[in-house]
Vacuolar H+ ATPase AC45 accessory subunit (Anopheles culicifacies), 391 residues
Amino acid sequence: MFLRVQLLALALAVTLVQSSSAYYSGPFLFWGLDDLKDLQTPALTEVDDKMLRDLYSNAAAVVVFLRNGTTKLSADNFPTFKRIVEKYEFMYSPQQMLSSNPLDYNVNAEVINLVGSPSQQDVELSALFRDSTENYGERKVLGILANQWEEPHVLHKREAKGGEEFYSTSSTTPGSPTDEPEIADSIYNVPGKAILYMTGPPVLKMLNDSDEGETTHVLDKHTLATYDARERESKMIVTFKVDDSTKLTLKFRFDMDAGYWSMSKVDVFVMDTKSKDGAKSLDTTLELEGKAPYAPLGASYSCARQLVFRNGTTVLTLENIQVQPALDGKTKFDSAWDCVGFTTAPILSGIFVTSFMLIGLTIAIIAILDIKTPNRFESRTGKQLTFTVQE
């Protein structure tokens, strides 16, 4: 029996390693940190694991971009990204998997799946990396470009303008899809980090500046969710592909304070992936109307009523949610704090009416108990009883 348990554990470990390597498939391109200039490795040599861990730890944030297409990473297909790479120190590694996961060594690490055509991926990659440097500081963000699937790749070396070399990769297996698979449900799960569940998809309504009126997006398909954990505030980041040219991201913000967490704000980010500079058609923060969801750390929050987040004419509605951040490695919800609670309006009304009935019954019982019966009675042979009544 003990041997069988060991074999099962070994099989599970092999499966996890295989899935991890398939998720972060090489070759890899690292850029953004000045520390990279001291970590250049010989060609076709894997990066030392300790070097990787030091890179993750020294960075203020780590952004992993996953491609799942076969387009060459060349200056022609990714011109904007090429200019970003030339601006920073960068390092190329041909290895097929990362020996250390950046999410395990940096609390500000996140994974972004690139979708669409090469031009869309170029705009999205460049715009999101610029946003990260604005948030965490110039040359303090480590960018990692990888592939989502474990495929054999061929290294291409291109001569860039100014004498600098620009590496590109391509898969030897043609015909792989360029669009990221979308998940058609309303369960956003970052294993061991956070879970958000809804019975229906989020609905985002925006009032257009043109004469088209109001635009409504039913966000029923999403890509993989990520989680950005910090000491005071954490974010669950969920990306939706609205159409071929628009990408919409919701960032659910969790405030951590005094052993409790709350969710009162949602950031909405809409980007036109076909524009040359990754133009933002919407970048705003919505605030919840009414009392914010909250619960102790280690507990989830459940609410059957509709939650409405609003900022001017932009409105996001969530139906019947259960949510919990900071799972600390757990894979399911803990006990829930319900927004309804015990003292609802119908319950208070029932208690109020029942109290009046009890008061009336008590007065009636006291009045009955206060009645005194006569202690003398008339008889045919006795004297007639007389009672004197005084006004």
